[in-house]
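ERR on first pass: missing label on line 2. Operator R.T. fixed the label and resubmitted. Corrected input:
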Amino acid sequence: MSEKQLGTWSVKRGLAEMLKGGVIMDVTSPEQAKIAEDAGAVAVMALERVPADIRKAGGVARMADPAIIEAIKEAVTIPVMAKARIGHFVEAQILEALGVDFIDESEVLTPADDKYHIDKHAFKVPFVCGARNLGEALRRIAEGAALIRTKGEAGTGDIIEAVRHLRAINGEIARLKCLEREELVSAAKELGAPLHLVEEVARTGRLPVPNFSAGGVATPADAALMRQLGAESVFVGSGIFKSEDPVKRARAIVLATTNYNDPQILAEVSKGLGEAMRGIQVETLPAEGRLADRGW
Amino acid sequence: MMEIRNINGNSTRPTIGILGLQGAVEAHADMFAACGAAPRVVLRPADLEGIDALVIPGGESTTQKKLLNFNQLASGLVQRIAAGLPVLGTCAGLVMLAREVEGGTASKLNLMNIKVRRNAYGSQLDSFEAYIDIKGISGKFLAIMIRAPYIISVGEGVEVLATYEGRILAAREKHLWGCAFHPELSGDNRFHNMFLEYVKENMVPAATPA
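pass 2 clean. output:
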């Protein structure tokens, strides 16, 4: 019998693997967490406010109150995630001490550091980070992220940015696959990413960690769209609890995420869901309102 | 070794169905492909036709249970498994197979004579890896435990395959195999190969349809 090892890379990446094909839902109370679990969510993101309300409230957005996170942890048996500000490693330490299952170093909160993201290797808890392109994804993986998600544009209910980011990552991966070795060195420079990760992506044709989608999913069709574009799971933020009938919509998005290739089922589950979140067209957002530009 | 026959009688490559509702589907598919079997993702009842074994992968058992019903797979699965289809359940899949579940409700499959404790080790911070001994595999095997369950007790006819720190991590009841760890993530295909050997030995020509 050998010594057990906690918080290893396999163990961190392993949890990301288990979330594949599922839906991770933003919740702000134990009641919402129960609704998410009952609808079949694979995990919940414990927050004080969903991104749409963070936008509305303005000011500085920080880690949620630990009391809320603990109450949500009590309410469900599925994994509980929570958000820390970009670069705020003490918020991350607190979330780890609370025993959350995954930390999202998230652009939805106000960044704490304009130069450095958290050294995620220093933690036993796994991290997910947002990315708009391959270089950003690989920089986060180099820092220790066990899971990548598109940033999209959180709190808008507009899918265009999530599509843009996923297509950017897919396109850059496709390009790397047909480069010669010496060209990869130059590609690594252009991407601003470590060469060994660039080489790995060129060889395998995929990110070294699972690739999920976030930032704008509001309907079952949005979830299926991201899956068909190659996202392995979806995060749904404001899309559920800012809609008319969260219970129905949550379940429909779960069913659509698994059956994303079956238009008959997608048609069935999309019926009679009530109104989706009102949303904001991303184009109309002023530059300072764009959360995806936070981080580098 | 026994001569391998299968349903078509013309191929020695078993088709391994992998329940594809959610979770570590791809990792199992890659592992079985590397072992020379033909993996097939099972999402609809028709996908069950012609498979020689089934894997219920890790993921979230609460999610998988709901999707199992929506995708109308539960009754077909139970029927095939009751008729002797070999099954490997890993982590959440082990929970799905169990007749009794602590920390959650049993799935409708209700097949294996074991009692399991869900999320038995705590949160993700308590997830771990360790080298363990497994009956039928020589040398140590890396067990990766992700918010893992363990088997509290086994009933009659269940053979224990692995224990760690006094807890049962793998067991087998005839054609039902279950483990709390993730052999599909350890980069070591010996566990999959052991299951595959069992599948091959038990592949029989399909009964002539009535």
